[in-house]
Amino acid sequence: QVHLAESGGGLVQAGGSLRLSCAASDWALSNDAMVWFRQAPGKEREFVAVIGERGARRYYADSVKGRFTISRDNAKNTMSLQMNFLKPEDTALYYCAAGPIVSGRESDFPFWGQGTQVTVSS
Fold this sequence. Notes:
Blueprint: E1 3-7, E2 10-13, E3 18-25, E4 33-39, E5 46-51, E6 58-60, E7 68-73, E8 78-83, E9 92-99, E10 111-112, E11 116-121
Parallel strand pairs: 2-11
Antiparallel strand pairs: 1-3, 3-8, 4-5, 4-9, 5-6, 7-8, 9-10, 9-11
């Protein structure tokens, strides 16, 4: 069983920054693609960013491109999302997930964390 735990969420003013982290226990993530999704109140969960197993391939949703950076440290079994120039519309519960392929589809990722809340005030 893979356990993923997100951290780093919080309350920040618009224009500010946050860094989210995702750590895995009881599993080596080095062979998995890792992804961030988010879900705002009353909305469906949406893709944010994905990174391949060696970090060479990275893809972003258009809404965060140029502001967010996804990265990973396989030696530490962690993944991060650096979020800059945050906007109120970035407010959501952010989830990390792991899976066998680089994808933006939820169904391609069998292992999920519980989420960390990000709130951006205007």
